[in-house]
Amino acid sequence: MKERPILFNGAMVRAIIEGRKTQTRRPVKDAIGMADAPKRFDAYEYEVNHDSCKVTKAFGFENEDGQWKSPFGDPGDVLWVRETFYDHGPELGVECRATEWDRLDSDAGIWRPSIHMPKWACRLKLKVKRVWVERVQDISVSDCIKEGTPCGCIKPEYCPGARLEFLKLWDSIYGTWAENPWVWCCEFEV
Q: What does the pLDDT look like over 48-77, one tens digit per residue?
C-alpha cells in the first residue's frame, strides 16, 4: 500500500465530508496511443495490445515516453487530501478553508494554498477502491452524482441536471469537456 497526495478544491472537500463525493476524475496526460483503447476499461485489469502500446498491463502503466501513469495508484492505496489551510502552529493545529469558508475576506491573506499542505496536516484520507479509464463525456448520471455534483431530484439516478452540473464543474476546472479527453477515474471511500 502506498500513500500519495491529491488536491481538491473547497467545494469538493465539503462534498467528501458530507458523503456526496465518492469518485473523482483527472485527465490522462498525453493520451497519444490510446485511440484503439476500448470505450471504458478497468485500469488494473486491462491487457493492452503489446504491439501498439508496448506495455502488458494498463494499471499504473507507462509507455516508452513515460506517459499514462495513474495519479491514483492501485486499489487499496491511500490518497491524502491536500486542501487550502492555515497553520496555527503545533499547539493550535490547522484550520481548513473548506469548512471555514465563511470567514471574513480580511482573513484571506492567512490561508495557504492546498499544494503547500504537508502530509501531517491532512484531515482526510481516501482508500482507493477502483481505478478505470474512460472518455469524460461517457460518464453516467449515477457517476455524475458520485462526483459530488448537486442534485435535488427525488430519484438521483434519473436526474437530468446531474450531467449538466458535472459538465459545468469539469469545464470550470479543466475547460476540456468539448474535447472529450481520456480521464483516469477513481472510486474511493473515506
A: 444 444 334 444 445 555 556 678 988 899
CA distance 22 to 28: 19
Contacts of 27 by beta carbon, 8 Å cutoff, 6+ apart: 136, 174, 176, 181, 182, 183, 184
Contact yes or no for 143/20 (Cβ under 8 A): no
Given a contact cutoff of 8 angstroms between Cβ atoms, the answer to whether 177 and 136 are in contact is yes
98-117 pLDDT, tens per residue?
A: 887 666 554 555 788 999 99
Measuring CA to CA, which residue among 54, 83, 67, 79 is closest to residue 133?
A: 67
d(CA 48, CA 57): 6
The architecture that CATH gives domain 3-189 is: Roll (3.10)
Domain boundaries, the chain: 3-189
Helix or strand or coil: residue 12? Answer: helix
